[in-house]
Write a structure and sequence with these properties.
The protein is of the alpha/beta class. The protein is built from eleven helices and 14 strands. The longest helix has 17 residues.
Length: 314
């Protein structure tokens, strides 16, 4: 449990992370992701409950926990006046690394920054800064690396580069990755297991493919001109063969958007359209199940990015 004033940031959240895996904490802004990382990395004390990293209590064994973890913050923590080499050298000094120079050289090569090693970071692109922060977090060879929104604000090419490096780390199995993100695509692409959180609670947990398969079918999104009487619309769509769930996203004047989970969506689509025709079909979309559909299924509301948590925490 963690509160910021009257705001409950964490509300009975419970997690177990397998060593050597890539674990994702997925949720909208304000769901409790950053607060969870802050507690696990000893930066914030929980108001209630306990947490352990690699079997060590984050309060009673704080110093030992810190030696074993690396952290890439959501916001950059690089000194813009230092060069890339200087940033890494400083990190190595703080961890008293005897082979600091060799590790700095390896890190620069891994980040593809050898040619830019002696340039001040203020002139780096967002992708270059993020790669530098990633290898800095790995410089002391932590057993677990926390990444808080690691690709936030990056362009497509820079994001792809970070993803590829995280996949490489996952394949080695030498370090456990704990990733927070609001990107469904990122979690699906990288994580062995994930927990979707909303309002400080875990709403569902498991491997991405299993979570999507558990929905029980494809997702058809129907936008109707007329959604009244609502019970009649829901009953008519829900009674069709193969349909396991019907939800309404919202109402636009007299119309509305309905999401139907149905087995063999392409084959069932003609029946759905025929049943919905009396209500006026404005638009129809057919999707394979996604993590966003999983979130909607378990929370009852769409995935939103606008809520804030406490003092700008998320």
């Amino acid at each position: 449990m963690k509160r910021f004033g009257q705001v409950v940031a964490l509300d009975g959240l419970s997690l177990r992370v397998a060593r050597g895996s890539c674990f994702g904490l997925l949720g909208p802004n304000g769901a409790g992701k950053t607060t969870t990382v802050s507690v696990l990395t000893t930066l914030t004390l929980a108001d209630e409950g306990s947490a352990a990293v690699l079997g060590r209590d984050v309060v009673a064994e704080r110093a030992l926990v810190r030696r074993e973890l690396g952290l890439v913050f959501q916001e950059t923590t690089l000194d813009p006046e230092l060069t890339a080499r200087e940033q890494l050298d400083l990190h190595g000094r703080l961890y008293h690394l005897a082979d600091r120079r060799a590790r700095v050289g390896e890190a620069l090569a891994l980040a593809g920054l050898e040619a830019d090693a002696d340039r001040p970071v203020r002139g780096f692109s967002g992708g270059m800064k993020r790669r530098l922060e990633l290898v800095r977090g790995l410089l002391h060879r932590p057993r677990i690396l926390f990444l808080d929104e690691p690709t936030l604000g990056l362009d497509v090419a820079a994001r792809a580069g970070i993803w590829e490096e995280l996949r490489r780390l996952r394949r080695t199995g030498d370090v456990t990755l704990f990733l927070t993100t609001h990107s469904m695509e990122e979690a699906d692409a990288l994580c062995d297991c994930l927990a979707i959180v909303d309002r400080g609670r875990v709403v569902v947990e498991g491997p991405p493919e299993r979570l999507k398969a558990a929905l029980g079918g494809d997702v058809v999104v129907l936008t109707l001109e007329r959604a009244e009487p609502r019970d009649e619309v829901m009953a008519k769509l829900g009674a069709l063969p193969g349909v396991t769930r019907v939800t309404q996203d919202g109402v636009e004047s007299s119309g509305g958007v309905f999401r139907i989970v149905v087995a063999n969506g392409p084959q069932r689509l003609p029946e759905l359209l025929y049943a919905a025709r009396p209500f006026g079909v404005r638009e129809v979309l057919l999707h394979r199940p996604t993590l966003e559909h999983v979130f909607l299924h378990h929370t009852g509301h769409p995935f939103e990015l606008g809520r804030q948590e406490g003092e700008g925490r998320g």
